[in-house]
Recover the amino acids of this structure.
């Protein structure tokens, strides 16, 4: 009997030692971005700065869709099935994919155009569902970008709008841009594509239509192909207004909006607070604290266009 008791004690001591060595169970964060793994948006520096290190203080499960909507849906299902402590959704399509699959797992988003229109919440100041995070206000900004194009190019008569009809806010946004174009006395030419191959055809049509400038939708189909779009805009001598700074940093003509890369970084503070017990409805959705206007005058000179000097004076940043 004493041998059995001693054996049981050894087993108990051994199992306790193993448990202590392994430490407490790590919390899990699911990361889903409708972008590529090499995207400048998809970084985890913000979490590391707050002490969340993969495999040591937290378990990170990463998924990037590379712009493939079907792949995104499958990845969203996988993440929800894992029942992580919190999910991060990068860009509107990722938020939509998660939204349709869970109403209780906390979700933090960044790069989302309009969380109210998407149904992720009914209000910004006090989210009433399981979503919170940082919004780009992109839907509100698109008509303003059209107005800025007209201010930059006073003789502008027509504008092309490069859009993906599968974008979650496409129809609502299109109607608002049409109304803005009518208000500004501009002819709007909408060219749509659902794949990267169609972008070349879209620019060919814009050239045929002889539009004076182009406005690019904030859809991952386009944000994932900045090199292709910038090259086509320059080759066709088309002044373009972009929704993300990454286009401007890569050599694009104009950008107006908030810092989306910064939003992805700052989303870590939301994840941190939820991992520490906060609820999404305790964390107000954040709008961009500053909107910036940038102009690449070197590109303007190369494609042979003159930017209104008064417009240049309004810019926050000008490059040569």
């Amino acid at each position: 009997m004493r041998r059995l008791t001693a054996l049981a004690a050894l087993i108990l001591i051994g199992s306790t030692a193993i448990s202590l060595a392994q430490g407490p169970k790590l919390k899990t964060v699911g990361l889903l971005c409708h972008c590529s793994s090499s995207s400048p948006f998809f970084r985890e520096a913000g979490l590391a700065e707050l002490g969340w290190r993969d495999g040591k203080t937290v378990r990170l499960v990463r998924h990037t869709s590379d712009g493939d909507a079907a792949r995104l849906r499958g990845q969203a299902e996988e993440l929800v099935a894992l029942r992580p402590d919190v999910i991060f959704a990068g860009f509107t399509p990722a938020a939509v994919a998660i939204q349709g699959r869970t109403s209780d797992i906390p979700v933090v988003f960044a790069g989302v155009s309009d969380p109210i229109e998407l149904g992720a919440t009914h209000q910004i100041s006090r989210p009433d569902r399981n979503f919170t995070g940082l919004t780009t206000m992109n839907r509100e900004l698109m008509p303003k970008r059209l107005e800025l194009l007209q201010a930059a190019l006073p003789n502008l008569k027509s504008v092309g709008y490069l859009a993906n009809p599968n974008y979650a806010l496409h129809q609502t946004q299109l109607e608002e841009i049409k109304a803005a174009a009518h208000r500004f006395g501009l002819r709007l030419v909408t060219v749509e594509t659902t794949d990267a191959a169609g972008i070349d055809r879209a620019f060919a049509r814009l050239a045929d239509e002889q539009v004076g400038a182009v406005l690019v939708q904030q859809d991952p189909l386009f944000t994932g192909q900045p090199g292709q779009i910038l090259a086509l805009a320059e080759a066709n001598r088309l002044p373009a207004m972009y929704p993300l700074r990454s286009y401007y940093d890569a050599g694009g003509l104009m950008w107006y909006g908030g810092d989306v890369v910064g939003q992805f970084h700052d989303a870590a503070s939301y994840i941190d607070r939820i991992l520490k017990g906060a609820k999404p409805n305790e964390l107000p959705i954040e709008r961009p604290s500053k909107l910036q206007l940038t102009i690449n005058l070197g590109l303007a000179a190369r494609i042979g266009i003159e930017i209104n000097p008064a417009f240049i004076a309004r810019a926050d940043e000008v490059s040569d």
Summary: The chain has a mean pLDDT of 89. The two ends are 88 Å apart (CA to CA). Residues 15 and 90 are 41 Å apart (CA to CA).
